[in-house]
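Onboarding guide, step 5: your first structure request.
Type a short instruction followed by the sequence, for example:

Predict the 3D structure of this protein.
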Amino acid sequence: MNTQTKITQDNLTANDAHTILVEGNNRFVQNLKALRNLKEQVFQTSEGQYPFAVILSCIDSRVPTELVFDQGIGDIFSVRVAGNIINEDVLGSMEYACKVAGSKIVVVMGHTKCGAVTAACNHVELGNITPLLQKIKPAVVAVEANVSKMNDKSIEDVAVLNVELSIDRIRKESSILSELEKEGTIEIFGAIYDVSTGKVIFL
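The system replies with structure tokens like these:
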């Protein structure tokens, strides 16, 4: 599979980028891999990069973004932080990826059995983890309001809602990304990765 170039990136639509990710994950689930010469991709990208997507995901070791979507060097910007939370630095990274570097899709990807989400649901407080978990709390509060007691299902509901609220924040707090989406230049999507199956479900 060829390395992304300025020409291939320019010719991609946001919908094309979405399709590439879906097809890549399908290969991953089937334990297939596109043929790539990674060493050659290192050489080809040494003078510049033209990723087609920026993906915000959790730091969880079971969710290696490039592998999950069967992508190579130079294909995606990977932003990783516990709980796939949104902050100013994450937004700035996404704005750079899309406005400056030309990426066509923004994906916020949570996952099942997320330790950060579980910790937020259990109201854990510990050092710098505390303010990080506060960014997940709006999803926790919303789900808690509809259940008598948090259980495994409601924790997974928090993970999904956390993704959806993160997308809302992107649109509200980044005029650059919001405008690019309205123009049809990019798409902004949420997704959940199932750590048991390897499948990505786009929300």
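Each response can be followed by summary notes, for example: The chain has one domain: 6-111+164-202.
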